[in-house]
Design goal:
Helix content: 40-55%
Number of domains: 2
Strand order of the largest sheet: 2-1-3-4-5
Radius of gyration: 20 Å
CATH superfamily of the largest domain: Glucose-6-phosphate isomerase like protein, domain 1
Strand content: 5-15%
Order of helices and strands: HHHEHEEHEHEHHHEHEHEHEHH
CATH class of the largest domain: Alpha Beta
Structural class: alpha/beta
CATH topology of the largest domain: Rossmann fold
Number of strands: 9
CATH architecture of the largest domain: 3-Layer(aba) Sandwich
Distance between the termini: 39 Å
Length: about 350
């Protein structure tokens, strides 16, 4: 395995310089939020009873973070839709459908857009172009178009903070200004501690990467951090080309833990990483502690990572950033360029064919 403290490890493997986008995440979030505010403040929206965010993969991930952080205080329901079409309740002008696709050409998302048009919903498109931008403009729908030439998973700021700005303009969440400022300061400071110039002995993301390499990472989280566990799973898939999975507390206490009793060979090649937050329900915190004891008794490799920051948004984004670096370092350690996703490209080509 390659030395994560050797500069040439990155130069030789990370050909697209993903490391620079990871280091610049705070600036990306700031630019995305400011651009979202300026754009959406100029639009006159009709009242809405519910919001559906339609998207796939990384394009839907940002909205899931916003939903997790703000749904408890939101004045209307927020649904994340990762599929063709739309849920049955999404109908007429009092439903706002936010259609998000970084490329603008995602098959499922374009189908959701067409369904929203047929049902007469209010629509906002978030994209960097493609067919989504074209169709939305043809129907006179607002298009928040951003220029970002890299992969959707690297553009998490552009996929998250315009949604926060939109919800603020719609007045469906409390003023998020203080939360946004906290997140940007937190991410900027953490980028130094987690970046490539921070040595392994002082860099927890590098050390965590060493634990997941050549193992099956299993992410456990609850409530606020459930979409973050999904994010870790997808970034380990896409960046490090690792199999990974995730599960949610307290549900996993009603089924998954029974699997600790068997399959010792599988558990020797796995590691459970628990993502924990100050916002976890008190009983969920107790469940994490009890489950940890159960894993230790079963000889299961496990570790815990705690979110930082005061606001719910900060706790979410702190572990998004941490997990992104872990997946990046896991790729570098095994000599894998984190950017290409050949299997995804092949599937798209087969569907087009």
């Amino acid at each position: 395995m390659l030395n994560l403290d050797a500069r040439n490890s990155y130069d030789d493997i990370d050909h697209s310089h993903m490391r620079q986008r990871l280091a610049d995440i705070a600036a990306q979030c700031r630019a995305a939020y400011d651009a979202g505010q300026a754009f959406f403040q100029a639009i006159q929206f009709s009242p809405v009873d519910n919001i559906v965010v339609a998207g796939m993969g990384g394009s839907a991930m940002g909205a899931s973070f916003v939903q997790a952080a703000y749904a408890p205080d939101a004045t209307v329901p927020i649904t994340i839709w990762r599929n063709y079409g739309l849920p049955g309740f999404a109908s007429a002008a009092r439903t706002l459908v936010i259609v998000t696709s970084k490329s603008g050409n995602t098959e499922e998302t374009l189908d959701a857009f067409d369904t929203a048009v047929e049902r007469g919903c209010q629509i906002v498109a978030l994209t960097s172009g493609g067919l989504l931008a074209q169709r939305a403009r043809e129907h006179g729908m607002p298009v928040f178009e951003y220029a970002y030439p890299y992969t959707p998973r690297e553009g998490v700021g552009w996929l998250t903070f315009p949604v926060i700005a939109l919800f603020r303009v719609l007045d469906i969440i409390p003023d998020p200004e203080a939360d946004v400022n906290e997140v940007i300061n937190l991410l900027g400071n953490a980028a130094i501690r987690l970046g490539i110039d921070s040595p392994v002995m002082r860099n927890p993301a590098k050390r965590m990467a060493g634990q997941v390499v050549h193992r099956l990472p299993i992410l456990y989280a609850s409530g606020l951090l459930a979409p973050v566990a999904r994010r870790w799973k997808t970034l380990l898939n896409e960046n490090a080309k690792l199999l990974a999975t995730w599960d949610e507390m307290p549900e996993l206490n009603h089924n998954a833990v029974v699997g600790f009793e068997q399959a010792e060979d599988v558990w020797r090649r796995s590691i459970v990483i628990q993502l924990r937050s100050d916002y976890d329900h008190p009983r969920v915190s107790q469940r994490f502690d009890i489950t940890t004891r159960l894993m230790l008794e079963a000889g299961i490799n496990q570790d815990t990572v705690r979110a930082t920051g005061k606001s719910a948004l900060a706790q979410v984004m702190s572990l998004v950033q941490f997990g992104d670096w872990v997946s990046y370092y896991a790729a570098i350690m095994t000599g894998i360029d984190p950017t290409p996703t050949d299997a995804l490209d092949w599937i798209k080509a087969e569907l087009n064919r």
